[in-house]
Write a sequence for this structure.
């Protein structure tokens, strides 16, 4: 589904966040707020979305659809089926086990009926011991409905002997390992939880007498909710329909390891993460890059849109003029529903075009957020040279991506990551550019507000896709043959 409908050749060379979650309680027509929140979080997953609401008269109701929120959850007929003052929603890219081949049964939120009433859950992240748990649960009689690792949480809740749903969730989440931000709902409660390391984001907002939970603050902004605070790593928040909030700490305390790539690429630039504007962190990455890897040139151009804030920072720090040397066609994604081979071969040109009049004869610095396989970077370099650029210098706003992510981000297998088997100089030659430099890990940490850089003994963030230091052991993947970093690497 992903490939035919919503993906694009250009997008295949980016890491992709796999989910966004949103929930609201204590508002009239919760589904409308949930749909808006999901729309604001659409950058975190475009493959499918689902909403569950509860209404005392009709009980739990749900709708799950493939495609964009705006195409499904603006339909009055669909929204009419989702009454109630409490609701949660989920947008997904894909989950482990069904990449690009999602069945509607894999679309969250998932629902479970327990003796004390029903509960629905929406999960952002990836469980690193899901395969082991699934085997164990199936052996003990659980019948799985989906291929999603998130469904394990519902089955673990069903097996708990606790008397209420928040307690059962605590039991279940103590058994899972990996990265999870979860929003759940019962008939009368909205629940938000982050894993002990706080790998994926989750924020709390206030709207009138009601409350909202969202993956990012941009989901609060769209419904006019006030950002109150982040749900803290290892915290469970339970909000009742009378507006009472309780906070629990179900896990042993740990030093948090938030995903540093959220700062680089996944989150929207208008969101606030860890008290910092994502835009400002990205601009600061450009400043650090200009200090670490200066080069004489005539123009600094972003690879749109994600390279833009870093290119602005690079230009400000270096004094080299900023210019829109590459223009993005905003409407491309909707034009070719099923790209033919011929159109696929046009690749990047469908989405990006060079501003020839500006580029001709110039020494150009191109700022991009990351290099994954390198296929897109090569094509962009060709386009810039075709347009008559005198020199092309790449500056990359993240360190080399050399390791896959197992915490809720879709990454190619390790061999496909250019940086897993090439040095920086080899990558420069492969891309065919005059120079290529990545920001250092320390520079990235400084840009994210850690003045002293990365604490090697106790890193402040998860940076496994750059460093190979996985903060949670990826048990399922190691069982499947994944080789962890050796002492020599
Ligand atoms: S491995 Fe990379 S993308 Fe995945 S959580 Fe860690 S920093 Fe984020």
């Amino acid at each position: 589904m992903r490939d035919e409908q919503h993906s694009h050749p250009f997008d295949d060379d980016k890491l992709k966040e796999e989910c966004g979650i949103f929930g609201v309680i204590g508002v009239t027509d919760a589904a409308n707020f949930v749909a808006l929140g999901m729309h604001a979080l659409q950058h975190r997953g475009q493959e499918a979305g689902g909403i569950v609401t509860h209404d005392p008269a009709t009980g739990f109701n749900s709708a799950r659809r493939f495609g964009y929120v705006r195409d499904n959850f603006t339909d009055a007929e669909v929204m009419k089926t989702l009454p109630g003052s409490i609701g949660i929603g989920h947008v997904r890219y894909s989950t482990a086990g069904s990449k690009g081949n999602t069945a509607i049964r894999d679309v969250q939120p998932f629902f479970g009926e327990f003796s004390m009433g029903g509960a629905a859950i929406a999960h952002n992240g990836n469980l690193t011991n899901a395969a082991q748990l699934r085997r164990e649960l199936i052996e003990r009689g659980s019948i799985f409905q989906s291929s999603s690792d998130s469904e394990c949480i519902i089955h673990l809740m069903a097996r708990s002997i606790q008397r209420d749903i928040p307690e059962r969730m605590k039991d279940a989440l103590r058994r899972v390992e990996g990265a999870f931000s979860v929003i759940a709902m019962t008939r009368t409660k909205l629940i938000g939880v982050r894993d002990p390391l706080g790998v994926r984001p989750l924020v709390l907002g206030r709207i009138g007498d009601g409350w909202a939970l969202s993956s990012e603050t941009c989901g609060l902004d769209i419904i006019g909710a006030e950002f109150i605070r982040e749900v803290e790593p290892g915290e469970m928040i339970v909000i009742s329909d009378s507006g009472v909030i309780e906070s629990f700490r179900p896990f042993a305390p740990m030093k948090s390891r938030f995903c540093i790539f959220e700062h680089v690429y996944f989150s929207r630039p208008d969101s606030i993460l860890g008290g910092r504007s994502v835009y400002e962190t990205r601009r600061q990455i450009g400043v650090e890059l200009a200090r670490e890897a200066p080069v004489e040139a005539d123009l600094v151009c972003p690879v749109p849109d994600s390279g833009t804030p870093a290119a602005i920072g690079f230009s400000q720090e270096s004094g080299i003029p900023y210019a829109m040397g590459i223009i993005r066609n905003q409407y491309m994604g909707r034009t070719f529903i099923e790209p033919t081979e011929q159109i696929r071969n046009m690749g990047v040109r469908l989405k990006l075009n060079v501003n020839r009049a500006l580029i001709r004869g110039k020494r150009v610095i191109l700022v991009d957020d990351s290099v994954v396989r390198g296929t897109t970077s090569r094509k962009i370099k060709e386009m810039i040279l075709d347009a008559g650029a005198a020199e092309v210098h790449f500056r990359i706003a993240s360190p080399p991506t050399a390791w896959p992510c197992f915490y809720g981000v879709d990454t190619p297998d390790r061999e496909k990551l250019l940086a897993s088997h090439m040095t920086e100089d080899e990558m420069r030659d492969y891309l065919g550019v005059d120079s290529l430099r990545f920001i250092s890990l320390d520079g990235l940490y400084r840009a994210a507000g850690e003045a002293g850089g990365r604490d090697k003994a106790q890193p402040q963030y998860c940076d496994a896709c750059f460093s190979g230091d996985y903060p949670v052991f990826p048990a399922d993947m190691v069982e499947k043959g994944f080789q962890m970093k050796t002492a020599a690497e």
